[in-house]
Structure formats: structure tokens, C-alpha cells
Amino acid sequence: MVKLIRGFLTVTKQYNIWDFGMLKVAVFCFGLLVGAYFPAFIFDHTSFIWLVFGLASAWIVYITLVKYSGG
């Protein structure tokens, strides 16, 4: 499993902006499909989804503006 993950990480280092853009589009569409098939489940867990979104966004802001930019 570790070898598989390292392989994926090695490949993603070669991604350009369009590759990451397509990855984001694919993940976004997958999320829409899940939401379309399970709307009641998604609605019942809206608070948890907002919490995960907030934490993930805060993490990205932190690593972008503080950790990796040297600030």
C-alpha cells in the first residue's frame, strides 16, 4: 500500500495546472452525483459537511500562506 501511495505522489509531482484542474472537476462532479443520489443523507449531515469544509479550507490557507510561503 505504501508503494502504491508513493507511486501516486511521484506521478502527481508531474501534474500541471490543467491536470489539477481536471482532477478538481472530476471530484466536484463526483460530489454532485453523490449528493444527487443521497440528498436526504447529505441534508441530515449538513453541519458536519460545513465543519469539514471549514477545517479543510483553514488547513489550505495555513499551508499556503504560512507554512510553505515562509511567513
What gap, in angstroms, lies between the N and C termini? 35 Å
Which geometry do the CA atoms define? Answer: extended
How many domain regions?
Answer: 2
Secondary-structure element order, N to C: HHHH
Which stretches are low in confidence, meaning pLDDT under 50 for 5 or more residues running? Answer: none
What is the typical, i.e. mean, pLDDT?
90
- The value of Rg in angstroms is 16 Å
Largest sheet: none
What structural category do the secondary elements indicate? Answer: mainly alpha
Percentage of residues in strands = under 5%
Describe the structure.
The chain is mainly alpha-helical and 71 residues long. It folds into two domains: 1-37; 39-71. The protein is built from four helices and no strands. It has helices at residues 2-12, 17-37, 39-44, 46-67. The longest helix has 22 residues, at 46-67. The mean pLDDT is 90.
At a glance:
85% of the residues lie in helices and 0% in strands. The protein is mainly α and 71 residues long.
Can you lay out the helices and strands and say which pair or pack?
Elements: H1 2-12, H2 17-37, H3 39-44, H4 46-67
